């Protein structure tokens, strides 16, 4: 992997890697560093200490999906971010952070699946009137996206080129 970058002004940024090739430190031209810590049992990224000595801790579910991200010694307080996943499919269901809860919905997977089966259908954030919905065609392309009901529609020609965009 990349180990050194020199910008046009001659400033050097370098990366230090462990025996497994994972980045353990990023060293900037001014000598400041970002350190990464890995869990010895799973090899998953466990924590990051940035150049301002702020610490980010990552906690995982048993399947390796991120469960939460916690922040310590932040100069500006940052709320913990928590994630939940669909128990049957490895896809995000909710994200909770300092703004509130964001919910992710998916088109159903049935015996006779429709267009977009299993794909993202909606994102509903913590604010009023912020729901984004998605619809797909038979090739899995997004044909419409709407924010609070106001949408954009896409159509393609036989060659797969975008032929119309309606806003």
Q: Compute the separation of the termini in Å.
A: 43 Å
Arithmetic mean pLDDT = 94
Q: Work out the count of structural domains.
A: 2
Low-confidence stretches: none
Strand arrangement in the largest pleated sheet: 1-2-3-4-5-6-7-8-9-10-11-12-13-14-15
Helix content: under 10%
Question: Beta-strand percentage?
Answer: over 45%
Shape: extended
Number of E-state strands: 15
* SSE topology string: EEEEEEEEEEEEEEE
Commentary on this structure:
- The protein is mostly beta strands and 167 residues long.
- The protein has two domains: 1-78; 86-167.
- The protein contains no helices and 15 strands.
- The protein has strands spanning 4-6, 12-17, 23-27, 33-38, 45-49, 55-60, 66-72, 81-85, 92-97, 100-106, 120-124, 132-136, 142-147, 150-156, 162-166.
- Strands 1-2-3-4-5-6-7-8-9-10-11-12-13-14-15 form a 15-stranded antiparallel β-sheet, with no helix packed on it.
- Strand 7 (66-72) and strand 8 (81-85) form a beta hairpin.
- The radius of gyration is 21 Å and the shape is extended.
- The mean pLDDT is 94.
């Amino acid at each position: 992997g990349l180990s050194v970058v020199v910008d046009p002004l001659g400033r050097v940024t370098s990366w230090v890697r462990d025996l497994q090739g994972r980045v353990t430190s990023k060293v900037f031209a001014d000598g400041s560093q970002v350190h990464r810590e890995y869990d010895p049992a799973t090899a998953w990224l466990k924590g990051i200490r940035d150049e301002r000595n702020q610490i980010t801790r990552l906690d995982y579910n048993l399947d390796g999906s991120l469960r939460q991200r916690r922040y310590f010694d932040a100069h500006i307080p940052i709320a913990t971010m928590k994630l939940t996943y669909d128990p049957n499919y490895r896809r995000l269901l909710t994200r909770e952070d300092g703004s509130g809860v964001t919910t992710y919905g998916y088109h159903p997977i049935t015996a006779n699946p429709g267009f977009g089966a299993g794909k993202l259908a909606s994102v509903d954030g913590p604010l009023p009137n912020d729901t984004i919905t998605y619809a797909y065609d038979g090739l899995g392309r997004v044909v419409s996206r709407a924010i609070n009901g106001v949408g954009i529609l896409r159509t393609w020609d036989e060659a797969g080129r975008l032929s119309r965009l309606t806003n």
